[in-house]
Amino acid sequence: MFVLIKSSEAVNGCPRVLKGTPAMTFYDSSATNGYIPGKDLHVDSVLSEWEPRFCDFIDVRLLVTTFNVNGKSPPPSPGALQPWFARNGNKPDFVVVGLQEMDLAIGTYVKDNNIKQFEWLSAISSCLRGYSEVHSIKLVGIFLVVYQRIDGAIPCGEIMSNHVPTGFLKFGNKGGVSIRMKINDTSICFINSHLAAGNELERRNQDYREISQLTFADNSSIYEHDLIIWLGDLNYRLATPPSIPNELIRLKCSTGDFKCLLDYDQLLQQQIYRNAFHDFQEPKINFKPTYKYDTGTNNWDSSEKRRAPAWCDRILWRVISEGTNVVASDYESIECITLSDHKPVRSLLHVTTKKIDVEKRRRLVDEANREADRRINSLRPKIRLSHTQLDFGDVWYMEPKVKTLTVENVGAGPVHFKFVARPGNDDISPDWLSVTPPSGTVMKGCAVHLSLQVLIDQRIAWEIGKPGHDGRLSDILVVRLRDGGDSFVEVFANYKKSCFGASFLAFMNTPAPEDKKEELLIDLGEPSGLESVSTTSTKVPLPLWKIVECLRANGLENIQMNDPPPDSGFVAIRNALDRGSPEQLLLMTGSGEVDLITVYTALLRLIDSFSDPIIPRDAANYCLRQVESPSYCSACVQRFPEENRIVFDYLIDFLVDLLPSHRSSQGDILQHFADLFFKADSASSANRRERRGFVEQCLRTRSGIRPTPSTSSFLMSF
């Protein structure tokens, strides 16, 4: 939250953050002058035009840099990273550093680990002698830190930060972190993000939209600043046609003839299509792609996958306030840094900030009010919407669908719009619908393009899955103009229900016609097309059985647990579970359409999405008190309702067979499943040890029922 700053607490022009002090907004310091920015758009517009009469404009140099470090620790040599920050000419006033993949370990998604953060912070600080840290924020492996020159006199303050996790189970392996502050009297929002990888173009766009929804503790959005600077591993690749194969791409990049490849850059294309970053600017790219290299070299990826080069690492900005100006210089990659499969990218941004002379502005406020009144009498705000109805049609679980809404200013002056909640509602839209951006200012004769996204996540699916809901969704959005009227947009969608986000109890308890029973349940005591190694003699939900037995059939030891959990392939797996036969998953894995880590990830997603906990809520606390005794834990399980016990035993059998093949990841796997069984927040540390202990005791007991040489020796280690 924003905090009040005592002038005596300022150090090097940058105030210390005082804990426990009252909150304030950007504009509290102006309230005593009779003028509050943001309260009256027309007065704001007049004073914006008159800024030269009461503002001094100061050029501030920001060195902005981004680096995907691929889970590596910084090099031991203190000078190894110096070329990354070394520059000729005047020193920048601020240095903004964004890291991605600071820690790749799966366990990092389960428990917070600050070791890598301290290592990198120390290494960066050693390269920035003469600078002090202003603020930093971390989300798993995504890290953002701002430094300021110690001998600088530029004030910064009103600092605030937040983060948005995206990606696998929202563990934060993908997402964004943000720091906002005022430099002089210009508000700047910095965002460092790591978007979805590989071929997941739409998932990248979705990540952008989700991160764009980030708000701060005072409920202000990223768009309520003079300037947004967005950096990170955005992961956009080259969408080259078959006539430009990988080898030709590599040749062009190696010989410096890469400019023509930018025509196929996905980020530039998505900006043109207005799917993502369409109002952001970027310096001209004059450097080779920054991904993917063999670690320790400047050679393109020689691994089995032989990834094509791409400009994944980018720095962009968006000017919100007309009075703010940005000029970029030295947009470049640092090729001599070879510790990662990415290269660092940096740019020096010259930002024109304003320094308000409060007394001069105070003397102009009355005149500005009169001028604003004169304009209001002749200039009523007026907009035209491209649609008053938007029908998204059929939508599916965790598959975003996006449509564009254009707001055109057809009035005679500037217009400020904002989506507002309908009477009786707390939010501007239901949870299944998001608007990016939710507010903005449109100048006369201009238009802004908004992205409306429908996304059904597990909590929304739980609501839709309740009895009596037919899956049809609708809402009315209210677009309010400052000093004007309201406009309305009706939104419709139809959710196609899935095994994801459903109740596993419903699969087991819903009667089905005799010829359709196999669509809900599978009898593990009967022969099947896939060999089942479980001794459970009753039935489990078919979607769960399909995915577990697919993993078994492909060999549990072949799951690459150390690969970053991907999103790619999820839709195909979801469709196979919802509509396909048990053999369809085998065909997909056999053909290489999806790999086993994707199937394994889908299993975790399926369990996490169940609306009912596998360990009943009314039994959870009792179970956690019995973790010292295998027999007591076993007795707890026997008290579960039959459906819960069947599914729990089935998954424990799966773990008994899975764990011996993945000794280096056993602790992480156990914690994942323990959190899922109890349906506990993976980010919560409460009872984490007890949850895992209960599962360990059940594994001991279950392995005694189904002994094998590998599992027996493995469980002795608990």
Automatic annotation (TrEMBL):
The keyword Hydrolase does not apply. GO terms for molecular function: phosphatidylinositol-4,5-bisphosphate 5-phosphatase activity. The keyword Chloroplast does not apply. GO terms for cellular component: early endosome membrane; phagocytic vesicle membrane. Residues 58-357 form the Inositol polyphosphate-related phosphatase domain. SUPFAM superfamilies: DNase I-like, GTPase activation domain, GAP. SMART domains: IPPc, RhoGAP. Keywords: Cytoplasmic vesicle, Endosome. Pfam families: Exo_endo_phos2, OCRL-like_ASH, RhoGAP. This is Phosphoinositide 5-phosphatase. It comes from Steinernema hermaphroditum.
